[in-house]
């Protein structure tokens, strides 16, 4: 089992473009034995302490295997819409781990 946590930071004013990409990418996760466990858009009041920018969204996703995750990243349909991701996301941090 592979667990992915992603912190997503958007370019200002690109929320709709980001949502358009997510509407395409999220359903594809299931195609590769993946599950979106959490999609959180935290409010400013949700942060107790911070020494970095606050992410726009936080995703927690699990895949049955590393190969499933790799196949998801190479999906042709998803790749054809990556321009939406590139236009809307300023940066992201991807943390990969395993379930203990």
Q: What does the model show?
A:
This protein has 100 residues and is of the alpha+beta class. The protein has a single domain, classed as Alpha-Beta Plaits, CATH 3.30.70. Helix content is 37%, strand content 32%. The chain is built from four helices and four strands, in the order βαββαααβ. It has helices at residues 15-31, 66-73, 76-80, 82-88, and strands at 2-10, 34-40, 57-63, 89-97. A four-stranded antiparallel sheet has the order 2-3-1-4. Helix 1 (15-31) packs across helix 4 (82-88). It starts with a strand and ends with a strand. The relative contact order is 0.35. The mean pLDDT is 96.
CATH topology description: Alpha-Beta Plaits
CATH class: Alpha Beta
Percent strand equals: 25-35%
Shape descriptor reads globular
Instruction: Give the strand order, joined by hyphens, for the main sheet.
Output: 2-3-1-4
Overall domain count: 1
């Amino acid at each position: 089992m592979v667990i992915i946590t992603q912190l997503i930071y958007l370019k200002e004013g690109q929320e709709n473009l980001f949502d358009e990409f997510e509407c395409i990418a999220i359903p594809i996760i299931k195609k590769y034995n993946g599950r979106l466990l959490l999609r959180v858009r935290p409010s400013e009041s949700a942060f107790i302490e911070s020494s970095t920018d606050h992410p726009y969204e936080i995703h927690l996703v699990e895949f049955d295997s590393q190969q499933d995750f790799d196949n998801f990243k190479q999906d042709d349909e998803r790749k054809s819409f990556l321009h939406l991701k590139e236009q809307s996301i300023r940066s992201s941090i991807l943390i990969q781990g395993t379930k203990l």
